[in-house]
Amino acid sequence: MRKVQFAAALTLVAAAACSQSNDAADTAAEATKQESFAVITAGARIGHLKVDTQGDQITVDYDFKNNGRGPTIAETATFDQSGAPVSWSLSGSTTFGNEFEETYALTDGIATWTDASGSGEASVDEPTLYISQFGSPYAAFIYARALLNDPDRSMPALPAGTLRLTEMESLTVQGTDGEASVTTYALTGADLNPDYFILDDDGAFFAYITPRFITIREGFEAEEERLRNLAADYGAKRYEDIQARFAHDYETPVRIRNVRVFQPETLNMSEPVSVVVSGDRIAAINPLDVPTGEGEVEIDGAGGSLLPGLYDMHAHLGDNQALLNILAGVTSVRDMGNEIDVLEPLRDRIENGVIAGPRISMSGFIEGVSKTNSSTGELAATEEDAVNLVRMFAERGGYHQIKVYSSIKGAWVPAMADLAHELGLRVAGHVPAFSSPVEMIEAGYDELTHINQVMLSWVLPPDADTRTMLRITGIQRFVEIDLESEKVQRTINAMADNDVAHEPTIVIHEYAMLGRNGETNRAVADYIDHMPVGVQRNAKVAMLNIADPEEDARYRDSFDKIIETVSMMRERGIFLVPGTDFGGAFQLHREVELFHKAGFTRAEALRRASYDMSQYLGLGDSRGAIEPGKLADFFLVPGDPTQDLKAIKTVALVSRGGTIYYPSEIYPEFGIRPFTEVPPVRGE
């Protein structure tokens, strides 16, 4: 078993002989090390990671910017002989600019720490690792250097839990100065999903890998796509294993007995019935006095509510979100922007039953070239490029719309929209920088995405660059808006008169505008105590930097203005679309609650997130309601969400095309404490 060797601290002796001085110089050279890494997403370099090692101390400089935003982190840490940190300080700003200070220290067996969620203290009587809240990708190596020195590569962690290191595979990589032998590892216990990273044969940090993002040693940038694909493969194998163990494909009809069915067209709950599924379809809905047939599997619904599967209409899907959405009853999503080589294979794996995931309606993401452009999706440098990308998405098939992003020039949109409509595609997206919502409606938009994209035009001058963080920080100005003003009403009238829909993504605005360091964000308050400790800590981290009490009040009042605006849109007949831009799953549950806050009844909010979305996407013949002949996409909750929407968060069963999932069986794989018992099953 390979061990990582760590340089010892230097001891300088003033009266040393010449030979001793030479030995000290050699040791100093070994103990002093500078490393540089490139941060890359979708093939584009967006930042750096630099590490200086001086004896038993390291300093880290980490920074990247993508789509006009990104973190800046400075770290300093010192280590004991086991390789575990005995001090660790971190400072900087998060992706959206929230400034932070984090410290950890181990002194005389007492560990103390302070982060954005508060302070803690614990007695330590064995080697223990502190899980940083704001660590850079290099933090994975900080944990690994200690875990590699542990016999079972497992150590208790603070504030809670256990970190485990698993070796994945060895391979050879090619750099500008030659080959290197490296080994990939998985680190579990810090979050919902493993972290994947790479060490070289000397045990030094080489890369941190995800399917879309990589931090890699300079000189090896040409290997970035190959190594990102490794992370994708590892994640895929994990989810394939979960699917194989926990997806219940009963070979006979399944009768879910004693459930009340939500009826979206009447907004009522039915009397108790049994719902029979055969294959991927709903075969029948029977009165309770109809007995279970010979050979049927019977699941006891215990008088709970059976609801049509929900839609997240603003997803950016990956393997992990795919499964978590299913477990939350989100059986369909609209992906609003993804790399083609991520999205299309993901959809295929889901549809072939290899992994669990929702049905995906795909959007073709088209972005312009600028200093702050998003690296996701396809880039257009000219109007001709942009129009050709519209044609490309139409020819690929499976895309129902294009999504226009912030760096596209507004003058290009009429030609893009004309071709999209000619080819049967809808047009949705951001309001491009230096354009207005009304101009985009006139150019051919069918849907405007994000409430801030609409409201910023009411508070910013026409020359404001919304490709920058201004599109985020500018939302505190919403408090100044007069909703009866001419510029507001002109936009609202244009949306209503032209049947332009709007997807406000209220939940991500709530999370950003009302999140404060040290306070559990109210967007997640109902379920956060079921989550792993790392998720709980992150729920107490503000997304934005709040300068003072006055700015705090402005953000809070501006969020109230968002709710007023969405409510006004609803009253004016503008079709509102529920989406999260935030992973979906539990966040979509919160979006449904926020639709209720904006004026929908509870039953109307449920219908909007299920039946109405299937109609909006042209899928109403097969989805959106629990009726014989339709796809068996539904979920079971013990309570009645037409009386209390919080009931949709306690999911006991999900059917996705007749494949049954019991979330309580799967949640422990993510460190999530289950919400319900698994329903009784007979005849399987």
Query: What does the overall shape look like?
Result: globular
CATH class of the largest domain: Alpha Beta
Low-confidence stretches: 1-29
Please describe the biggest sheet, giving its number of strands, its sense, and whether it closes into a barrel: 15 strands, mixed
Roughly how many Å is the radius of gyration? 27 Å
Total domains, how many?
Answer: 3
Strand order of the biggest β-sheet: 8-7-6-5-4-3-2-1-15-14-13-12-11-10-9
Helical residue percent band: 25-40%
Based on the coordinates given, report the CATH architecture of the largest domain. Answer: Alpha-Beta Barrel
CATH topology of the largest domain: TIM Barrel
- What class, by secondary structure content? alpha+beta
